[in-house]
Write a structure and sequence with these properties.
The protein is mainly beta. It is 5% helix and 41% strand. It is built from 4 helices and 26 strands.
Length: 420
């Protein structure tokens, strides 16, 4: 008998909260060289979500896409002469395996490209139409992966994060930061510090999907100027980049780090033990999550308001504010019993006429696979690149617009007859 082996490599995708979409869902293309019998899908649809006008965005959680290299080996066996069925196929089997591979990059982009940044808080992550994207396209060196290990990108969903710094000694010896720097994030929901890790701390073997791993806060208290200042205005603009300064006295201080662009708010901190303890005092919690900003996604709309306690005279009045600039209508501070409201008035309410807008995300995984060619039995290092697309429909909030106008006006001073 004669045996012929054919090897096909590709990227196998795993999409959370998603299903196969497009023509691939309705009419999958047959592929005799695939272990599944069909061409591997590359189009997916995430679950729908909505955009909100008030109270911040509808949080996007657990939306990610993973990719890994696969190898399908098709073995065709034919009968040899003098058998009566000489030349006929007696066996046709395709098996899937997962070779060792290295991650070179995994990009993740969106068709919604307007950056949305809170100018009053430079530590707030840059957002793209609301969602905060994480990707792996800034790797300095390829990352060796387990044979069946996935690499993951997607929408960041882990709450507020402030950029900070971490001592190099806190990194595992073989774990550089992104693009080789030594940076970490402080999650303000938990107060934990996360550094970039190509291996999970404590993992027996490398090759886990690169991710932010809990590494603790490692800034040496001796390197922080703990002679607390009374005000952010007292920060020394001439201080060296990398300087840390504590602002405000009391149980908690707020740490600022000097960057090339100025002082960056690292977050609340309390000194203790051999390293600072990042804490979130009650009443100071902040949460910035990924979510679609209505006025940027539904950009045919027009919404505006007059900020609270606006100027009393024509000279001091600065005019209305579009929620394209602020993200949504503010709903705090709000204490009707003490006549405290988040806005003076609502001036424009014009919804977008579309029912939904589709966000399109594209990820490209670039790898090198290492395996033994079953025909020549020689080692092979072959590039394997794959791209997939994920769609997500963003819907209008289910408002009765008349009721919404009344709800918004109830959050204003002028509706309650309070003028200033």
């Amino acid at each position: 008998m004669a045996v012929t082996n054919t090897v096909v490599t590709g990227i196998e995708w795993n999409v959370s909260r998603g299903v196969v979409a497009g023509e691939e869902a309705l009419n999958p293309t047959p592929d005799p060289n695939s272990a599944t019998g069909f061409v591997n899908p590359t189009e997916f649809q995430w679950e729908n979500t909505t955009a909100r006008l008030i109270g911040g965005p509808e949080p996007l959680t657990d939306f990610w896409v993973e990719g890994r290299v696969y190898m399908d080996t098709r073995t065709i066996t034919t009968a040899d002469p003098p058998a009566e069925n000489a030349g006929e196929v007696t066996s046709d089997v395709v098996t899937r395996s997962y070779p060792a591979w290295s991650l070179e990059s995994m990009t993740f982009t969106s068709n919604l490209t307007d950056d949305w940044v809170d100018s009053t808080n430079p530590a707030k992550p840059k957002q793209y139409e609301g969602p905060i994207l994480f990707k792996l396209n800034d790797l300095v060196d390829p990352v060796a992966m387990n044979s069946a290990g996935y690499s993951r990108v997607g929408i960041q969903d882990n709450g507020a994060q402030f950029l900070g710094f971490v001592n190099g000694a806190q990194f595992l010896p073989d774990v550089p930061g992104p693009a080789g720097d030594e940076s970490f994030y402080i999650d303000l929901e938990t107060g934990k510090g996360f550094c970039w890790s190509n291996t999970l701390p404590g993992a027996a073997t490398p090759g886990m999907s690169p991710r932010w791993a809990n590494c603790g806060v490692a800034k040496d208290p001796a390197e922080i100027n703990t002679d607390a200042l009374d005000s952010v205005d007292d920060l020394d603009m001439e201080a060296a980049v990398g300087t840390w300064q504590l602002v405000n006295t009391g149980t908690y201080g707020t740490v600022y780090a000097k960057t090339e662009d100025g002082w960056l708010n690292i977050g609340p901190l309390q000194l203790g033990g051999s390293s600072p303890i990042v804490v979130i005092p009650e009443g100071e919690r902040k949460r910035y999550v990924s979510g679609y900003i209505y006025s940027l996604v539904f950009d045919q709309s027009r919404f505006a308001y007059v900020p609270r306690m606006s100027g009393e005279t024509q000279d001091t009045y600065e005019g209305e504010i579009s929620i394209t600039e602020t993200g949504w209508f503010p709903d705090t501070p709000h204490d009707p019993e003490r006549d405290i409201y988040p806005m003076d008035s609502v001036t424009r309410v014009r919804p977008d006429g579309r029912e939904s807008v589709t966000a399109t995300y594209t990820t490209t995984l670039t790898t090198t696979a290492s395996y033994t060619d079953p025909t020549t039995l020689l080692p092979v290092a072959a590039p394997v690149v794959g791209t997939c697309t994920i769609y997500q429909d963003v819907y209008q909030p289910t408002y009765n617009w008349g009721d919404l106008i009344h709800q918004l006006l109830d959050l204003t001073y002028f509706k309650h007859g309070i003028y200033h």
